[in-house]
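[step 3/7] fold_predict: job queued, chain A
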Amino acid sequence: MRATQWEFRNRTWLFLAIFCIGLSFYWLDPHNSGEVIGGWLSGRVSFLPLNRQQTVVRGIFLVAALVVGIGALIRTWAGAYVRANVLQDSKVRTEKLVADGPFRYTRNPLYLGILMGVFGAGVMCSPIGWAVQVGLAIVLLYRLILREEGELLNTHSQSFLAYCQAVPRLFPAIKPRIPSSGACPHWSEGFGVQLAWWGIALANLAWAITLRPAFAFAVASAGLGLFLVQKYVLKAYSGPVATAKDG
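[step 4/7] structure written:
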């Protein structure tokens, strides 16, 4: 089932709500996922240092930071081609089919980046919250993809159908499936629109270094705050740019 226009218009807030829902499960399960996994590994994996659970937990959060960072990098790469005002538009933009950069490997690199980000961010939640967060994100992502691809198919018909046949929907191909169009990426815009995800990657890194959840959540909140500032300032002052593919 496709996402509604309301869901697409409010997709940023819905993903934020999903993250908050995941965190809210600390009321039901007060244990942190990273610590739970660290404790389990410390007692069962022979080459890990005994009585050094903190070291294992640090490693888990470092891996999580890497996963979120890769997701943020994919989104930054895609955003550099799509342009910031398209990413933040409340409507599906179908004026032009973007098929360059990461869009040569997967039709939905922005959503792939979100999926990786949500999975990596889940280590900051309880185990139940992590599972709920990932599950809700997958459902919303799939609904958003169906909406966008349906509208692109209506607008571009044969060209988008050929693109779909060549490029996988979500999980990327190893090699590019279509030739480059020669489009010029705008890296500063791509990075600015992904400040929230870079903030979560830094939050996982901060947790790994300090083992202080409050400090990690402060870092994540700072990244979200910077993202919201640039989002609404950019929306208020930027002019129209005619490109589109993914949200």
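[step 5/7] annotate
The domain at 5-237 is CATH 1.20.120.1630 (Four Helix Bundle (Hemerythrin (Met), subunit A)).
DSSP finds eleven helices and no strands in the chain.
exit 0
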